[in-house]
Write a structure and sequence with these properties.
Layout: E1 2-6, H1 18-32, E2 36-41, E3 50-53, E4 56-60, H2 67-77, E5 84-89, E6 104-109, H3 117-120, H4 123-135, E7 144-147, H5 150-158, E8 166-168, E9 188-192, H6 201-214, E10 219-223, H7 229-238, E11 245-247, H8 262-269, E12 272-275, H9 284-291, E13 296-298, H10 304-307, E14 314-316, H11 323-335, H12 337-351, H13 356-368
Parallel strand pairs: 1-2, 1-5, 2-4, 5-6, 6-7, 7-8, 9-10, 9-12, 10-11, 12-13, 13-14
Antiparallel strand pairs: 3-4
């Protein structure tokens, strides 16, 4: 098959995230079995107009806005139209039902925005965004959908998409990279995510103020990049937590293991991942940590309530947890080694259910049914 993937970023984009890693893992496997795959996305500074990565043709056009206009132009200039167009949403879809008539189409959803708008934009913009996100689905009522969390499927149904039009597939994890290691002697928690407001990393820092008073040797390491870094640093410093809360690129005195893969080493050493995000498609870092025998403390929102089995592979909090609630979960793991060990072992076992080869087979089966 000739497959065109429309996704707002590619694997080399400076702001690459978990969604792009998923697309890459699927795309390179499609190529490996003989399919022709083109990945259309937006340009970035110093990025090549076109290049090939592991057999996947990358085509970059326009910016965050204009890429949506470049996509149909690119499509109609193709002498041979793709058999399948994978229309991936980053809040808004590429509107392929309006212009990709000569190909089979499938809409791919990582997550709805909805609540996220209010964390990232002013109120009036957020209200418009929520309405616009809902209205766009009117053009997709006869389009097949794919997602990887049952809670995301429920979100699609709430947007008016018929249950029969939605398929799900599981995500994978690289078990050669993510595997158990030696745990930190003292309590160590980590946040691994983009540093943006919707991830609510600030709540974890505030929770650390509470935990630190009871257990002064507890540490938190924040792994990730993003515009919210400055605000988070100021919050940490205002709470006098400079020695207890560190960002991964800082000098971490209690981080002693020599490793080229600092992220994985931290996942192996951590007692738990703390992830109180507003909304997720799944939360890849949850499964990556699970493979490292590290449970997760998460908010009870779409995606995260799929990737964590409550009281088995981690702890699911309320959808909008307070610092006190987060601190309570952290303290429960510090005080109860038996619980911590149970969650760690179960997280590891649960992670074994996920692999990229399995994920690919499920996704390819959905594509083939088109």
């Amino acid at each position: 098959m000739n497959i065109l993937i429309l996704n707002w970023k590619d694997l080399k984009h400076p702001q690459v995230g978990g969604a792009e890693i998923i697309v890459y893992e699927l795309a390179k496997r499609l190529v490996s079995v003989g399919h022709e795959v083109t990945w259309f996305c937006r340009s970035f500074k110093y990025g090549k107009h076109e290049e090939t990565i592991d057999g996947v043709k990358i085509v970059r056009r326009g910016n965050l806005v204009t890429m949506y206009f470049h996509a149909p132009i690119y499509y109609w200039k193709l002498r041979k139209k793709p058999d399948v167009v994978v229309d991936i949403s980053n809040t808004i879809y590429w509107q392929t039902p309006l212009w990709a008539w000569q190909s089979k189409r499938i809409a791919y959803l990582n997550q709805l925005a909805q609540e996220v708008f209010y964390y990232e934009y002013p109120v009036f913009v957020s209200r418009f965004g929520k309405l616009a996100e809902r209205l766009q689905y009117l053009a997709y009522l006869n389009t097949k959908f794919v997602c990887y969390a049952q809670s995301t499927k429920a979100d699609l149904i709430s947007m008016g998409i018929n249950d029969s039009m939605i398929s799900t597939f599981s995500l994978g994890v690289d078990h050669d990279r993510y595997f158990p290691g030696k745990k930190s002697k003292n309590p160590l928690f980590i946040c691994v995510n983009r540093l943006v407001k919707m991830k609510r990393t600030d709540l974890v820092i505030r929770a650390m103020e509470i935990v630190h008073k009871r257990f002064p040797d507890t540490r938190l390491v924040v792994v990730g990049y993003g515009y919210d870094r400055i605000r988070l640093e100021k919050l940490r410093d205002s709470l006098n937590l400079e020695d207890s809360v560190k960002f991964a690129d800082e000098n971490i005195l209690f981080f002693t293991k020599n490793s080229k893969d600092k992220k994985v080493t931290l996942m192996q050493q951590a007692w738990a991942l703390v992830f109180p995000s507003v909304k997720e498609g799944w939360g890849m870092t949850v499964t990556e940590c699970a493979a490292c025998e590290t449970p997760a403390i998460v908010s009870g929102v779409s995606g995260l309530k799929d990737s964590v089995v409550d009281n088995q592979t981690g702890i699911i909090l309320s959808p909008n947890p307070s610092p006190e609630e987060i601190a309570g979960a952290m303290v429960s793991l510090i005080k109860n080694p038996k619980l911590r060990n149970h969650l760690s072992k179960q997280a590891r076992l649960y992670s074994r259910k996920f692999s990229w080869d399995k994920s690919y087979r499920e996704f390819a089966n959905i594509i083939s049914r088109l």
